[in-house]
Design goal:
Elements: H1 2-24, E1 33-34, H2 36-43, H3 47-59, E2 64-65, E3 71-72, H4 78-102, H5 105-120, H6 125-143, H7 146-163, H8 170-188, H9 192-214
Antiparallel strand pairs: 1-3, 2-3
Helix pairs in contact: 1-3, 4-6, 4-7, 4-8, 4-9, 5-6, 5-8, 6-8, 8-9
Length: 222
Amino acid sequence: MAREKVLRVSGGEVVYAELKRQILSLELSPGQRLKESELAEELRVSRTPLREAIKLLLAEDLLEPLPTGGVVVPKLAVRDIGELYTCRAALEAIQATDATRKASEDDLAAMSAIVDRNALLVGFADDAMTLGHSLHELIGKVADNTWVGRLHEQVDGHMTRYRQLTNSTQDRRDQALEEHRAIVAAITARDPEKAAEVARDHVLAARDQALSVIQLREYIAS
C-alpha cells in the first residue's frame, strides 16, 4: 500500500513537471483550454496523476479554473510583466550586492567565462538566453542569500513564459551582453553600489523589451 502511494505521487510529479514545461515554454498556448481526457491520452497517464498535477499548477497560478469546468492556460499579461520584472530587479540588485562581497577568484573566473561564451553565441537566441540565465543563477549562488534566493526562484519560475519576449531581437541580445559584462565588471571591482545599479537596470531593460513585444501578441490578457 505504501509503495503504491509513493508511485502514485511520483507519477503526479512527473506529469506536473511536463505540463509545467509545456506551459512555461509556450508549447501550450496562453488561453488554451485543457481537457483531462485529451491530456491523459497524450501523456499516457491515468486521471489520478493528471489531477494531482493540475492541482499543483492551479496553486502556482500556471493554470486557471473555468466556471464551466476544466482549466485554461493563463494569457500573458502586461501587468504581470511590470510586477514580476520590478520584483526581480530588486532581488537581483541585492544578489549582485552580496556577490561583490562573497565572490572568490574562481567565482569571478566562472562569471567571466559565461560572458565570454555568451559573446560567442550572442547571435543565437536560445543559446544567448540560456547563458544569460546561467550567469544570473551563478550570481545568485555566490550571493548565498537564502530568502532572496527563495523569492527569486518563485518569481523566476513565472517569468519563464515572458523570457522569450526579452530575447527576440539581435539588438536586445547585444545590449543584454553588454549589461552582463557591466554586472560582472562591477562585481569584480568589488563595487556593490555599481553592481546593484547595473543589475537593476539590466532587468528593467528586459522588462521594457518584453512590454514592447507583448503588445504584438494575440494571446495577451484583456
